[in-house]
Amino acid sequence: MKRRNFIQLSTFAGIGLSLPISGVFSACSNHSEHSLEFKNLVSGLLKDWCDGMIKVQIKNPSNLEEHGALGCPSCSHIHGRCMDAVYPFLYMADVTADKKYLEAAKLVMIWAENNVSQDNGAWTVIPNPKSWKGITIFGAIALAEALYYHGRVLDSQTRKQWTERLAKAGQYIYDTFTIDFTNINYGGTAIYGLDLIGGVLGNEDFKLKSKKMAQQVTGFFTTKDHLLFGECKPDAGKLSAKGLHGVDLGYNVEETLNSLVMYALKNKDEKLLQVVTKSLESHLEFMLPDGAWDNSWGNRMYKWSYWGSRTCDGSQPAFAMMAHINPAFGTAAVKNTELLKQCTSKGLIHGGPHYISAGIPPCVHHTFAHAKPLAVLLDHWKHLPEINKKAALPRTVADGVKHFKDIDVSVFARGDWRGTVSTYDAEYHYKYDYRQATGGSLGILYHSKVGLLCAASMAVYQMVEEYNQQPQPGEDIALTPRIETFKDDEWYTNLFDLTASMESNDQNGVIELLSKVNLKNVAREAVSETAFTFQLKYSCVKDSLQIQVSTNQKIIEPTAFVLPIASPSGEAVEFVDDNEINIIKPEGVVSIKSNVPIKLKNISGSRLFNMVPGIEAVPIEVFFEEDSNELYLTITVN
Questions:
Q1: Low-confidence stretches of the chain (pLDDT beneath 50)
Q2: For the Broad-specificity ulvan lyase C-terminal domain, which residue ranges apply (predicted)?
Q3: Is 376 helix (H, G, I), strand (E, B) or coil?
Q4: Could you tell me whether strands 580-585 and 588-594 are parallel, antiparallel, or unpaired per DSSP bridges?
Q5: Which residues sit opposite 228 in a β-bridge?
């Protein structure tokens, strides 16, 4: 970090603080018109979401298993964490004086106490006392913030009951949580949670444990790229075959880094502020120009929803509160909030940009989780630094190729093209089928004129968290661009190759990323009696992107390259001839040409939809021709 920026940060951290972090930003309280536009966006979206949640709230006093819960338009079960909505509901009750919000807040707490509350102070993820209790930290933070900022709207009896319930939850967290007892998002979030709860309750033991964990968390950042690691079961310290840690962008930016920033600011922890500032800057390298988080490579990308992660809170607090250090942080907060609004319909966030066009109902979990950070921003608004989108995001102005060694992922930019290529091999569970983009695959392809062109999905869609994911509608066909063949009805693809290597160069205006990959099945066994080793080369110049696939081996089985192009229903698809296809987008025409005939993978010609990351796509495929060992596709935008 540059010394000037650190001095600024250090001075900022030394400002007198009140509970939990009000007053931190008092020197930055004069907001421009652009900043006020962001406030209007945040407050309008929060109201829309709260009204949307009230519309699906169940009111049936005769059935205590449902009464007060938030019904889910997409899931057949009630999400145990719906009590997290107590904070945004109580915020709205306070600022509007509308009793419907107060009633909604009380109802979600009533449901939680009747269905997921445990004697030891925990809450469970579903109404089953044996289910996961770690989510207690998120409910406890929501309840603590609701009580601290807006408890005045409660009657004395309710406030007393909720405070006592918070004390029980705080004790459970204090007794149970360590920095590494499970994924880092729990221990990391507990740092802020225990400090916050300890402040609300006047419990110094909670705050002391929080401080100890804050000292420990600095060891969970990668050495070269400063990425937060630890999203990796069963052992957060376990390394992959390539020696890489488990990193998930979605959980980091939408959950853990928020808590670390808020704790560090409140407690003037300059060491931690230095660490998280570097980390925020590294993570920001993966934000696309439209405000999306490129988590195509993340080891928990099975919950990637383009704008973030399905059940996390949202990235707004960390980036908005640190916008005085790097104005691009403020841009990130604004752009991501704008994207969330674009994915909102009838008061609920949909889990990707094409849910609405595909007719896929939203999961309510997205909304009650992401409403909380908006309430956080508004509760700290008069103290926040200037927030606008004047400063360019790193990926908006990037040119060239950058390799992130700690995850073996490269991002490239030339002209209007932005892309991500991954050979990352760290898995989440180590026992499930491979999921995220790897094997030299193109995790993201984006064009500044027409937007998203390619986005990776899970290789095989799995309900890794059955209560936190929606079932895949229709046929499960991966959206990740790939080489594939079938032998004896078994699928072989580079998407299952954890040993792929990658190199890159940028000369004479041409960016080249070259990967050597093998075609493997889900058991990581290479296909036999046909070509299995291929070279994948991505060549990017200002006006086009070319994908070249070649092999020195004999191709016996039909082998193809599949290129799903992101395209919502309603966009026209035209075959110019056998070797060229156009997709007509509102902002321009995407043209794909090949040296071999182009086909559509699904016979009907209709769109494919995948839950990760909520994208519809036109599934283009091209096959190697007989006695040919090379094919290519060239993409242009006019």
A1: 1-27
A2: 401-637
A3: helix
A4: antiparallel
A5: 221
